[in-house]
């Protein structure tokens, strides 16, 4: 449908809306600042910003900050940062709390129109009124009280006369409707919480059901795009706009993105963080956007992934493997590849002199010469991965074993194992002795392996204190099905730590370049964060980047 086409109770509202927006598309991405964004949100970001951009319209970033008990400043900052990291610039950054005064005035108006009442029922009573089966509920005694009484009582709620749960403003909807979203939803509740922006001004806070549609209306949103769990809410959304005779945006729903084998809910991710299952919201085993950033997933790879999903109402349950495959494809053209041996095993090449040195020109990508190359030394002492050597040879094994030859990636000749040394106590192989097949007709290797050479004067190899390999955090594809809860599905060996790995010498120049880039990016981010009203930055002038964060 076209912007503003949703039937209005008063047609002039549509004209006003089109006047305010010039007929342009207006969307909003409305996160609740109660956690960091995850991969699922990137779909909502893509849909809202993408739809507006595609139609030459505008998209707001709106913080839906009506739950002061759960909201924290760090979440606001991170959300803005991550939206920008994904490459989107909000037309305006707004907060539901910007409209608390307007929302309050409309609540008073709603009572005056006999479409809201102050209710003193307990949660249990409300539940009991709804009956055993979910059917049309009974009206409570407060529903029919005089308008003036509710107005006075609402004033008392506002003035802090009531404790939380003692009074709620409820909308007088339609108890005979089959949709529970029409059963007198709460519009305002009393909360004993200080709000990060309005501080202690308010004792009452509006609910999502009351706030969302009205703020969409205030902001002249043309397309209110949300996920399918809000289908039933569309009716209450429209009811409230009509009840107050304000411009009524059109809500449309799209399916959520659920990545399988992980948790796509802020509340549950928070539990993993709080209970120490992961090191923080940016732990590389999580699928929050800051965790993906820390893992080195480029924003373009995430967008390329969500752009393949489509925006039908079907929820997309996607295997992690499909996501990782998209990321790998994306990185294929841009990421340099280095030699690394995780568990180094020393190899002595017996038939070359002590000072043997060949500088090998090694491309950063075997099939992509534009990525450039590095110069790495090849010497008498090299290291291979312990997994690439076996004492017992078998037919289907093509790497190194006593008497067997193997190729070394990019090295001039293959090597053949002539003997090996073991630790007299443990029997473990400590050193392999090989011959460089540099004369006659060298054997044709059936496999090639990675290696790094010992060459002190060029700083080779680079020794890595600690290498972390991240395996899936959950054992199954569907942690939510685990009993008693998703934590029972946690893989207790999801982080493998390896000491003493070795990497080729071009590691340092590349690492320095990415640290410089990361610093630059962080500086730009913190400069922008400072420009956000109300989101006081806790960064100092110079961002502190630790290797942890990289
Ligand atoms: P969570 O369940 O993780 O707390 P939420 O829906 O409560 O998520 P909000 O902060 O309200 O999180 O989300 C902001 C927007 O992002 C909403 O429009 C919401 O529908 C959308 N969104 C959240 N999760 C997903 C998802 N998995 N796929 C697509 N959109 C999502
Ligand atoms: Mg929400
Ligand atoms: Mg939520």
From TrEMBL:
Q: What is this protein called?
A: glutamine--tRNA ligase
Q: Which UniProt keywords apply?
A: Aminoacyl-tRNA synthetase, ATP-binding, Ligase, Nucleotide-binding, Protein biosynthesis
GO BP terms? glutaminyl-tRNA aminoacylation
User: Locate the Glutamyl/glutaminyl-tRNA synthetase class Ib catalytic domain: which residues?
Assistant: 24-332
Class of enzymatic activity (EC top level): ligase
Q: Which GO terms describe its cellular component?
A: cytosol
Lineage: superkingdom: Eukaryota
| Catalytic activity, as annotated | tRNA(Gln) + L-glutamine + ATP = L-glutaminyl-tRNA(Gln) + AMP + diphosphate
Which species expresses this protein natively?
Suillus placidus
In what residue span(s) does the Glutamyl/glutaminyl-tRNA synthetase class Ib anti-codon binding domain sit? 335-436
EC assignment: 6.1.1.18
Q: Which residues of the full protein are shown?
A: 233 to 782 of 841
- Say which family it is in: Belongs to the class-I aminoacyl-tRNA synthetase family.
Q: Name one GO molecular function term.
A: ATP binding
């Amino acid at each position: 449908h076209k912007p503003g086409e949703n039937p209005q109770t008063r047609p002039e509202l549509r004209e006003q809306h089109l006047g305010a927006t010039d007929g342009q598309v207006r969307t909003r991405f409305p996160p609740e600042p109660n956690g960091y964004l995850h991969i699922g949100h990137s779909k909502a970001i893509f849909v809202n910003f993408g739809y507006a951009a595609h139609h030459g319209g505008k998209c707001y970033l709106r913080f839906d900050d009506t739950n002061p008990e759960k909201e924290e400043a760090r979440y606001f900052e991170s959300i803005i940062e991550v939206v920008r990291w994904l490459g989107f610039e909000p037309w305006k950054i707004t907060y539901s709390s910007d409209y608390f005064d307007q929302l309050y005035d409309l609540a008073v108006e709603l009572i005056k129109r006999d479409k809201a009442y102050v209710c003193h029922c307990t949660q249990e009573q409300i539940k009991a009124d709804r009956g055993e089966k979910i059917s049309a509920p009974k009206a409570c005694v407060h529903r029919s009280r005089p308008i003036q009484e509710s107005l006075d009582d609402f004033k008392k709620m506002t003035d802090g006369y009531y404790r939380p749960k003692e009074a709620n403003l409820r909308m007088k909807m339609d108890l005979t409707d089959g949709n529970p979203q029409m059963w007198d939803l709460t519009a305002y509740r009393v909360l004993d919480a200080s709000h990060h922006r309005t501080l202690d001004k308010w004792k009452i806070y509006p609910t999502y059901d009351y706030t969302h549609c009205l703020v969409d209306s205030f902001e002249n949103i043309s397309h209110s795009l949300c996920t399918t769990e809000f289908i039933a809410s569309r009716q209450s959304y429209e009811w409230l706009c009509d009840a107050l005779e304000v411009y009524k945006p059109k809500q449309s729903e799209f399916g959520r993105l659920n990545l399988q084998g992980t948790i796509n809910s802020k509340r549950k991710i928070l539990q993993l963080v709080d209970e120490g299952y992961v090191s923080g919201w940016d732990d590389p085993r999580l699928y929050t956007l800051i965790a993906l950033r820390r893992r080195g997933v480029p924003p373009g790879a995430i967008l390329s992934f969500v752009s393949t999903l489509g925006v039908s109402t079907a929820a997309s349950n996607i295997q992690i493997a499909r996501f990782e495959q998209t990321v790998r494809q994306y990185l294929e053209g841009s990421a340099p590849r280095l030699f690394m041996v995780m568990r180094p095993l020393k190899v002595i090449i017996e038939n070359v002199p002590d000072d043997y040195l060949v500088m090998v020109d090694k491309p950063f990508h075997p099939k992509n010469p534009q990525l450039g190359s590095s110069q790495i030394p090849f010497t008498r002492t090299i290291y291979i991965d312990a997994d690439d050597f076996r004492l017992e040879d078998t037919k289907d094994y093509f790497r190194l074993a006593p008497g067997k030859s193997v190729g070394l990636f990019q090295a001039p000749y293959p090597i053949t194992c002539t003997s090996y040394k073991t630790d007299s106590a443990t029997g473990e192989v400590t050193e392999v002795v090989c011959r460089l097949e540099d004369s006659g007709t060298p054997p044709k290797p059936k496999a090639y392996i990675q290696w790094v050479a010992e060459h002190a004067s060029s700083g080779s190899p680079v020794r890595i204190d600690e290498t972390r390999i991240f395996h899936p955090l959950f054992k199954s594809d569907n942690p939510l099905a685990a009993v008693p809860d998703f934590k029972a599905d946690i893989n207790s060996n999801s982080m493998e730590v390896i000491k003493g790995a070795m990497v080729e010498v071009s590691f340092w120049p590349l690492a320095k370049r990415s640290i410089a880039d990361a610093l630059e990016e962080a500086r730009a981010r913190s400069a922008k964060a400072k420009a956000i009203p109300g989101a006081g930055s806790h960064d100092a002038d110079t961002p502190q980047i630790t290797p942890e964060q990289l």
